[in-house]
């Protein structure tokens, strides 16, 4: 009986440790994503605003884009954000900066595949 309680205690402890690691990993990921968003907002704002022509992004903007976690950042794009930025310009900046994005990646209300198809239509 004693050994079964001991095993149960160790299993419970192991589950708590794994849960703690997973939770702290999610927090670290969320913090990293927030840093990506802040970096993109400060370094790339001029290249994705709705108003004005499409302009080649700066080296500073591209440096941030290349490091960004695209799925995480795209998951944060809301209708309100889309009212301020041009998703076409966002995709242009990503492509121009050499950011590899999986086909079909959805960002806000648009997917990368639809954007690239629109270039040829």
UniProtKB/TrEMBL annotation:
Signal peptide positions (record): 1-28
Keywords: Signal
Domain Bifunctional inhibitor/plant lipid transfer protein/seed storage helical per the UniProt entry, residue ranges: 13-107
Record keyword NADP present: no
Superkingdom of origin organism: Eukaryota
Signal is among the record's keywords: yes
Protein name per its UniProtKB record: Bifunctional inhibitor/plant lipid transfer protein/seed storage helical domain-containing protein
């Amino acid at each position: 009986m004693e050994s079964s309680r001991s095993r149960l205690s160790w299993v419970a402890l192991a589950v708590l440790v794994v849960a703690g690691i997973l939770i702290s990993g999610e927090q670290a990921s969320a913090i990293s994503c927030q840093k990506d968003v802040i970096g993109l907002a400060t370094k790339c704002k001029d290249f994705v605003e709705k108003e004005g022509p499409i302009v080649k992004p700066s080296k500073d903007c591209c440096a941030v884009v290349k490091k960004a976690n695209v799925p995480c950042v795209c998951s944060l794009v809301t209708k309100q954000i889309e009212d301020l930025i041009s998703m076409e310009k966002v995709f242009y900046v990503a492509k121009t900066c050499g950011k590899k994005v999986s086909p079909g990646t959805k960002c806000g209300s648009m997917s990368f595949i639809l954007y690239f198809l629109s270039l040829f239509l």
